[in-house]
Amino acid sequence: MRKAIAYSPRPESLEGYCTGCRLCERMCSLEHFDVFNSARSRIRVVSFEGGLEIPVTCNHCGLCLDSCPLNLIKLDDKLGVIKIDEEKCNGCRSCIEVCPIGAITLDPNSNKALKCDLCGGKPICVEYCPAKVLALHGRSDPEEVRSRRREFAAVLASEKVLRRPSHSGAVAIKGLNKITKEACK
Amino acid sequence: MTLKGSYSGKILRVDLASEKHRIEDLDPDFAKTYIGGRGFGSKILYDELSPGIDPLGPENIVVFTTGALLGTATPAASRTTLSFKSPLSNLHGDAASMSYCGVNLKQAGYDCLIISGKASDPVYLFIDEDSIELKDAFHLWGSYTVDAHKKIQTELGDRDISTACIGPAGENKVRYAAVMSDGQIGTHARCGGGAVFGSKNLKAVATKGQKDIKIVDMDSFKNAFKDYLDVIKLDPYVPPATRYGTPRFILHRAKFGIHGAENWRFGPYKWKGLDPEIFRNEYAVKAGSCHNCPVMCRREFMLTQGKHSGIVAKMEWESIARGITCGVVDPEAIIYWTHLNNLLGLDVESVGDTIAFAFECYEKGLLTDEDTDGMKFSFGNAETMFEATRLIAIREGIGDLLAEGTKRAAEKIGKGAERFAMHVKGVEMSAGDPRGMPVRAVSYATGTRGADHLRSNPYIEEFITPEDAKKWFGSEEASDLRKGVKGKGRLLKWSEDFVTIGDLLGLCKFAFYRSLTFEYLYRKGVELATRFYNACTGFDLTEENMLMAGERAFNIEKAFNAREGADRKDDTIPVRFFDEPLQGGGPSGGTVVEKEKFERILEEYYEARRWDVKTGLPTREGLERLNLKWIADDLEKYGKLK
Q1: Domain that includes residue A122, residue range
Q2: How confident is the model at residue B205 (pLDDT cuts 50, 70, 90)?
Q3: Closest residue to B339, CB basis, from A14, A163, A171
Q4: pLDDT surpassing 60 at residue B101
């Protein structure tokens, strides 16, 4: 059964969203490389203005399977996970191009493609997430994941979290641009 | 000894005048002795500044120091400290904040960034690992913090770039201007770092870095993490923090009746409209957190109706507190006012106190309609508060006077206005009213950067048991909130060393240095902090070593202030607290800070610190015990050693 880590917010509670703490990113790089480095994480928190954050990682859809010219991306049937053979990756970026959600990135150190491998079945980001909003789902039962996403989307569309703040527009302050180059001397 | 683990190992120096930079190695002994963050900052500041320089002159420096654990997955390791000579106090100044800019600096390879000199034209500094550039910032001059942040990200074409930038207030050298991190996600608020940036024609520091932060002992790290989670599961302090964020502190202030309302005259106040439930239900966007933090007390607040509908402000409790100080109790006005401060780059605490000071001067007739351009400077007048904030940032009309801070403004107004200027060492008051609780009063007086509730944790007295008080501070009296005197000085000294550890490591004080039981407080703040540090760096510090490192940083700051001429007479609080009983009734109603108790606690505190009781100056014995002989020798030259 194919599996994936899904963002599973609990929209009924203010504490049920991703808080943007990025512990998942740091623990991911720790698990795979023994260092802390968000740039080498296989999960990324995307921040939006107005205090909304969404963690993005591979949903193991399989679109990348045929993209690799070296045929290094394979489905591991036993674990239900799509993996890149990172050892042999030459950094051609073909898989990055084909991934629709930007879940594959390039390791800035080794120039190899990075993608979630579910930590061999027990993802560390799920274990450590302080807000408990990451969950490992079975992908062969997509309705479970989808219904949660629909619920989340409904909240975003109706509530204040999604609305884009108008920073300066709402606060036109007189007198700000009177500064001249001479005044800086 | 070599440097391992979570230190990046380099110090970057940038001189704005010569447009040159230099990279130095971080000495392992230096790292182990001063740990990081505020420890590095204080030491570098002491070494590199001569006494008596003008804080807004080109001789001042700004030191960015990353906490030793910043960038690791340690819970709440999120703080970066800016150190500089403060234009408010003319003494040691620093300001810490949650900051991606600091994380990027560390991942760019630098534990520490020292900026000196003054640029001839507005610039911003861009650090991308080995590439260090000064870029023209004339087009950014005059723009809001959030806009400057976005423009920098856009023109450099990278959303991973973080900034620490100033707003119009810093450019105009408002003495309490703040440095904002990533637009408005964090504020290096206190002591006027923004003005120092402005005086250097430095609009922003932008950083990017993707280098690894290493760790030495992964198993110990994971064990410490697990133990931290176990501790906070039991800690009664945490659930309200998670539920409300910092607006919950209003319940604490209401419990003791210490709101500091209307320029610190009234204890209890009409606060019901500011209930944390209201902020949670009506305005909070959702729970947020700084780096890796399971406490989740960070909040953005949004206005969805009214004149200012559509704004989102990152706001903490102090905004609400200073709203009350100005007599404003409308949550929407407070959120909007905070937003203004964030955009303009101002420290809400100093702004609030300064406006409240002006309100009282107006009430007493020391400021007239002529001074205020016809504006009614009355308590509770939110529109005036907004307008005054704007004028302060652009230094127009009365704003030019108020931008100097309460101390200088009072000196200019004269006629006894000093009585209404609520500051310690020139830095405006923060947190709650100390009347009725003497050790709090002393804690404001002894803070090395002026009035400050984050320089110590005297709140320990609220929950410590008499047995623990006896064991740790030598007297059961230390647990008596109002009557206790004996042991309080030692409690204060310990709590100052204790919270300083957080600034050295970059840990948040709310996640590590506040609790409602002494046991959890110690376990989080000393035991676990030390274990995280050792796991990440490979050093083998004991808990005593760690507390001593905190004490060392505090002593360096004290020595800096002593060298500038500060002594016991500066370790005091606004005279109002001594001789005007708290008005409005309530649990602390009618009390004052009793001068005699204040002095006794202060003296016990000096003794515990091994400083000279008569003058408040450091002693050779006290400094040498902390391996600070070099400071003792230096102070002796200036005749400031006892």
Answers
A1: 3-184
A2: very high
A3: A171
A4: yes
pLDDT for residue A179 is more than 50? no
Alpha-carbon distance of B86 to B169, in angstroms, equals 15
pLDDT band at A160 (very low <50, low <70, confident <90, very high): low
8 Å CB contact of B288 and A19: yes
More confident residue, B83 or A151: B83
Task: Give φ, ψ of B133 to 5 degrees.
Answer: -130, 145
Report how far residue B172's alpha carbon sits from residue A72's, in angstroms, rounded to the nearest whole number. 58
Q: Three-class SS of residue B569?
A: helix
Q: How many domains does chain A have?
A: 1
Nearest one of B229, B231, B224 to B534, comparing CA atoms:
B224
Tokens matching residue B15: 């001189």
For the stretch B473-525, pLDDT in tens is 999 999 998 999 999 999 999 999 999 999 999 999 999 999 989 999 999 99
Indicate the pairing of strand B112-116 with strand B10-15. parallel
pLDDT at A181 over 80: no
Residues 6+ apart with CB under 8 A from A35: A29, B212, B213, B214, B215
Other C-beta atoms lying within 10 Å of the C-beta of residue A122: 10
Check residue A140 and give its pLDDT: 58
B430 touches chain A (CB under 8 A): no
Q: Which of B242, B340, B394 sits opposite A171 (nearest CB)?
A: B340
The predicted structure's pLDDT at residue A170: 40
**Arithmetic mean of pLDDT over chain B:** 95
Say how far apart CA B256 and CA B395 lie, in whole Å: 37
| B21, two tokens | 């930079």
Q: What homologous superfamily is domain B10-208 in, according to CATH?
A: Aldehyde ferredoxin oxidoreductase, N-terminal domain (3.60.9.10)
d(CA B83, CA B442): 24
Q: Does domain B438-637 have CATH number 1.10.599.10?
A: yes
CATH number, domain containing residue A111: 3.30.70.20
Identify which of B155, B157, B105 has the alpha carbon closest to the alpha carbon of residue B132.
B105
Contact B343 A167 (CB under 8 A): yes
The closest alpha carbon to B209, from A108, A172, A114, belongs to A108
Q: How would residue A153 be classed by pLDDT, with cut points 50, 70 and 90?
A: confident
Domain coordinates in residue numbering, chain B: 10-208, 245-421, 438-637
Report helix, strand or coil for B202: strand
Rg from Cα positions in chain A: 20
Question: What's the whole-number mean pLDDT along residues A77-94?
Answer: 92
Question: What is d(CA A133, CA B360) in angstroms, rounded to the nearest whole number?
Answer: 49
- What's the confidence (pLDDT) of residue A162? 47
Residue with token string 């408002």? B174
Residues of B in contact with A181 (CB under 8 A): 121, 138
CATH class of domain segment(s) B245-421: mainly alpha
A115: helix, coil or strand?
coil
The ipTM value here is: 0.93
